[in-house]
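One thing: mind reviewing this one?
=====
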Amino acid sequence: MSNFILSCTTCATRIPGKDEIQECFSLAPVIGYTAWAAQSPLFWWPGMTRWVNLNLIKASAEEVGLKRCTEVFGAAIPTDSLRDALRSAGYRSRLFEAAHQLGSPLVVITGRPRREGGLEPTIAGIKALLPLVEHLPVRLALEPHYGSQIQDIDDYATIFDQIESPKVGITLDSGHFHAAGVDWKQLIHRFPERIYNFHVKDHIGAQSVPLGAGEIDLRGYIEELHGINYKGALAVELEVVDPENLPRYCSEAFIYLRDLVMEVTGQLPE
């Protein structure tokens, strides 16, 4: 087996009128996935996780054959003021507790809308958060979003200049990097030890499309990650205009990535 883990995010099973976690648990193991990623709104809002039966979710995932959770996605740190950012640390620590309970090694958050000085509260919030979660074997993997304060190479450089902790790293997102025109190869080469996660998306412009149907060099991503000995998830994300077709796209994505990883590494992904 290779170091890559194929993971089905609940974002990829967000079908109108249906529960995305239930759909993920129903579809993903039948397709062949053995890992999933919790991106449900259940985890977005501060304090929400205390009302979620995490033990039941974990048991339900394992019962259908999803052996691991690769991430828990939560809301960005507020940036209206330093006070708000610092006060948010306690709420964000609950995401780490939830991730640990689900067996996930990562919490993923992104940034608020891009504006001058916006990174200062985020960095302060992360610094306040780290002492609260240092006892948990869960890391923070910051995801870029097009138009957010975490988007470019320089944004990550600013963060890492002030936060040296290995507890904080990067979630690559091929879709958002493509939309923002980011030189993702340069980013990978600059911060190889900080790459903790990969949201795999294909795009035409800023629009998500099924894997293999867009403009993104996904083979190049796999080659670069294999070159730095990346060990972690290839987390499939699909935010398409026709979500009623997500079951088919999830299946096609699994086959596409499985074959691509085999071609590049000579080994099957987990």
Summary: The CA atoms of residues 115 and 149 lie 7 Å apart.
